[in-house]
Design brief:
The protein is an alpha/beta fold and 653 residues long. It starts with a helix and ends with a strand. Helix 7 (195-210) packs across helix 8 and helix 15 packs across helix 16 (516-523). It has two domains: 2-17 and 24-35 and 429-652, Rossmann fold (3-Layer(aba) Sandwich); 65-384, Rossmann fold, CATH 3.40.50.1820. The chain has helices at 2-12, 26-49, 55-69, 144-147, 150-157, 187-191, 195-210, 228-239, 255-260, 281-286, 306-322, 342-357, 402-408, 411-425, 490-500, 516-523, 546-558, 563-581, 594-603, 636-644; strands at residues 84-90, 94-104, 107-116, 123-129, 136-137, 140-141, 161-165, 216-226, 245-249, 293-298, 329-334, 439-446, 449-459, 462-471, 480-485, 528-533, 587-592, 611-615, 648-652. Pfam families: Peptidase_S15 (PF02129). GO terms for molecular function: hydrolase activity.
């Protein structure tokens, strides 16, 4: 009976101060946020592309940004290719050379070079970049070049040299494309690494190789490929103007499709740049202007929906027409799903014939396969010095270590540089950084304690619960301990709150601890507790399995952000809002692991001095938190050095 009365009393005095109903549907908030951010990027790209005054200046700066987003800024050194032909195959119409080259030392690119017979002059060359096709036999990976061999064979039978390239993942040496959702390599975000950068670099070096061949006309080099190869065609064509004609097939749609409509969930990481400059994809496509460009797709492709392809085409056409090259852009849509349809091939062949041979005739020869996998094999044994399987660890340029920086400059100069770098790392935080105002959603008392639930508007679409727990008998608030609620500690805290304050919207009585009240009362000895929620964690977790959570995180990086960067924003907003109204400024954040790293960075943006107790703080951003390209600028020791200048920090094991 006593327990029943206590429960009734707790429920009875629950009275929301804010009369509007609380909105705690975090999945809806997330969808609204993604839609709004995508629309903002879309509109900005449209406005930018419609207001270009000097195309050459614009193109140069845009290309530099794309280099940066692909991990190619500064551009890697062009080291000797060490090109090697390992075997030749004779066909009555052409010769195939099985070859490899090194786009950088130890980064091997395997491919087949198809050369027409009886050449009397230099001829056009096509780079065919493969999509995702896994060709294995008796445990050996023969590479996607085997699956797509009918393309280069057709080109060679019609007067073109064609170099078909394996990808990093689906080559004879098997590297990794699916690093994020399949292998949990979220540290790629910290390095700013994307396999799209490696594929782009391999394509650029493939051009270098073709220019060494006596059969090739250097002024007539084109590129094409389907699916993943279609995407790489865009990257290489946008980055290198030695590509004179391009036909990317099933390789582009816009941010609306990828982020809002969910196409990102069907794609691997090689499809995406690290979008820190917040481009929509028509801007990538525009960088091929005014060169001849055929955008090709099928009408039932779920990976590159035709509606998004139309939206890209319309914006790119505007650029071509402004440059007086409207006739050099075309759109080919044919019937079919995401598949290598014959109609797609025919239109690609005709496009290259038109611009490289000035031919408009019918395509009389079909594209067919001639060879078994063993015939197209490059390596008899894989090279021992290959870096393909671990290229993600070294491809990008990263900042010198903190010690190395301090050896070259004064601590004051180092700190000044790192503070500027913070603006780059968190450049895509919300623009409105005016202090947030937290509204009280409810206030409840139970067993000598008072729990106030606040609604924190972290951004225009994200409302998060913040819980303030105090003793009711204390006249002054006293010091406040701050806990960040994450996936590691939320189960324990929700059980305590459920036991002491049954009926709350974020916990269930079935998870309540029987001694919860006593535990919380001990926690309140000497002060109060502030429990901060972050989007996607603890009480504000998003629904879905591990795969779905990974796709949510990928959407953030398509927006030029990361989930943990936005969680750091949430922490900053909560701290700033609490400091505005709290009678005490004596705050101590207690956090562990990646949350400790996020607390550290959030503190760098506070004006007030606070204390931080950081348990198991990651030694490097390779362990987290994973912020956009942070390792290109600084690592955790630099953040610690900045924070110690302002705050009291205690590191715990």
């Amino acid at each position: 009976m006593k327990y029943l009365l206590a429960s009734l009393l707790t429920f009875w005095i629950l009275s929301p101060v804010n009369t509007d109903p609380p909105v705690w549907d975090f999945d809806t908030q997330l969808n609204d946020y993604f839609a709004a951010e995508t629309e903002r990027i879309k509109l900005r790209t449209e406005q930018e592309l419609s207001a270009i005054e000097d195309w050459e200046t614009y193109k140069t700066e845009a290309r530099r940004e794309l280099q940066d987003m692909l991990g190619l800024w500064p551009m890697p050194e062009k080291t000797p290719l060490e090109a090697t032909v390992t075997e030749s195959i004779e066909h009555e119409e052409f010769t195939v050379q099985n070859l490899h080259f090194q786009s950088m030392p130890g980064l091997y690119v395997t491919g087949n070079l198809y050369i027409p017979k009886n050449l009397k002059e230099k001829v056009p060359a096509i780079i065919y970049v493969c999509g995702h096709a896994n060709v294995k036999k008796d445990g050996y990976s023969y590479g996607a070049k085997v699956n797509y061999q009918h393309h280069p064979a057709w080109f060679a039978r019609n007067g073109y040299v064609c170099l078909i390239l394996d990808t990093v993942q689906l080559g004879e040496i098997e590297g990794i494309h699916h690093g994020l959702h399949r292998y949990q390599r979220w540290w790629w975000q910290s390095r700013g690494y994307t396999p799209a950068g490696v594929e782009t670099w391999n394509g650029i070096r493939a051009i270098d190789y073709l220019l060494t061949r006596p059969e090739v006309d250097p002024e007539r080099i084109g590129i094409t490929g389907r699916s993943g190869g279609g995407v790489t065609s865009w990257w290489v064509g946008a980055m290198d103007e030695r590509i004179k004609v391009a036909v990317p097939v099933a390789g582009i749609t816009d941010m609306e499709d990828h982020v809002v409509n969910g196409c990102v969930e069907d794609h691997c990481d090689c499809m995406y740049m690290y979008n820190t400059y917040q481009w929509d994809f028509p801007k990538v496509a525009a960088l091929l202007a005014p060169r001849p460009l055929l955008i090709s797709n099928t009408d039932r492709d779920i990976m590159f929906p035709v509606e998004g392809v139309f939206r890209v085409y319309r914006q790119v056409r505007q650029i071509y027409e402004q440059l007086g090259a409207g006739d050099q852009l075309a759109l080919n849509i044919t019937a079919g799903p995401h598949r290598d349809e014959q109609e797609l091939r025919v239109h690609a062949f005709r496009w290259f014939n038109r611009y490289f041979y000035q031919r408009e005739g019918l395509i009389e020869k079909t594209a067919v396969k001639f060879f078994e996998p063993e015939q197209l094999r490059v390596f008899k044994a894989l090279p021992g010095d290959e870096r393909n399987t671990r290229i993600d660890e070294s491809f990008n340029t990263v900042a010198p270590s903190t010690d190395a920086v301090l050896a070259e400059t004064s601590p004051a100069e180092a700190r000044s540089g790192w503070r500027k770098d913070l603006d780059r790392i968190f450049a895509n935080w919300p623009e409105n950084d005016a202090p947030a105002i937290m509204d009280i959603e409810s206030r409840v008392q139970s067993r000598g304690m008072q729990l106030t639930t606040y609604r924190l508007p972290s951004d225009e679409h994200t409302n998060l619960p913040v819980f303030h727990l105090q003793s009711t008998g204390r006249s002054r608030q006293g010091p406040t301990r701050i806990i960040l609620l994450d996936e590691d500690n939320w189960a324990d805290w929700s059980a305590r709150l459920a036991g002491a304050f049954p009926g709350g919207p974020f916990w269930s009585s079935t998870e309540a601890k029987t001694d919860a009240a006593a535990i919380l009362q001990r926690e309140l000895t000497g002060g109060s507790l502030l429990l901060i929620s972050m989007r996607g964690a603890g009480p504000a977790a998003f629904s879905g399995d591990e795969f779905k959570q990974a796709q949510i995180r990928k959407r953030y990086y398509l927006l030029g952000q990361s989930l943990q960067a936005m969680q750091t924003w949430d922490i900053r907003r909560a701290l700033e809002a609490f400091l505005q109204t709290s009678e005490t400024k004596d705050l101590t954040i207690e956090a562990e692991g990646i949350s400790a790293g996020m607390a550290l960075y959030a503190s760098l943006f506070l004006d007030n001095r606070i204390s931080l107790e950081l348990t198991k703080l990651p030694a490097s951003h390779l362990e987290g938190p994973y912020y956009p390209k942070v390792l290109r600028y600084m690592d955790m020791p630099a953040a610690l050095m900045l924070a110690r200048e302002k705050h009291a920090i205690r590191e715990l094991d």
